[in-house]
User: Fold this.
Amino acid sequence: MSQLTVSFDNQKPLLCDVNLKVGKGETFVIVGPSGAGKSVLIKTIAGLVRPSSGKVLIGGEEIHRLSKSDQEKLFRRMGMVFQKNALFDSFTVFENLAFPLRESSDLSDSEIQDRVNWFLEAVGLPHAAQKFPDEISGGMQKRVGVARALILKPEIIFYDDPTAGLDPITSRLIIDLIIRLNKEFKTTVVSITNDMNRAYQMADRMGLLTDRELIVTGGVAETQKHSDRRVQAFIRGEVRIA
Assistant:
């Protein structure tokens, strides 16, 4: 993305002249305080929010200049795990995973069943196939969300704070799962989090979103030694950056 600016209702921009390039197969993690605009940024990159100015390019294609049919083709190459998981309450776990396959693939019923069962095994939930979302824990719901985002085998996946609301042990296990599945499918990843431990666990490169700008800090070691005082203040938890 290039010179990305996002504002709503002619208010002061929430994001201003943000630039970022993520390489194929890379995992880029965006950190920053609550309210800095991380969710807005990731939804803008994913094409769910239209920027006020600037460009978002996926594989050299500018999302918002594509025709509707071409946008739909591009979106099929992408997946997203929302912070609240966005599961269908009236669907079982199995049905939640089968839904995108029925809507967006030509797989037969038996092929859909096989793929859903594979992903249930992959996320450790074969026993929960016939349960509804409100019958399983928050960590299990998150695993279902990860499986559903990956079940179409997207090239690019976005994680909107994948461990929000989870305890530290469950959070670490969720990131372990995400890393394993990302390697399995060789996906390009953009994720956001408020948790530096999980960011360090997951990231190839990182960036801090603050003061309406994205400071690309590099890998974990580079981030920890970064010269910008705002980066050091955030990673040490010394002050809250507004």
Notes: The chain has nine helices and eleven strands. The radius of gyration is 18 Å.
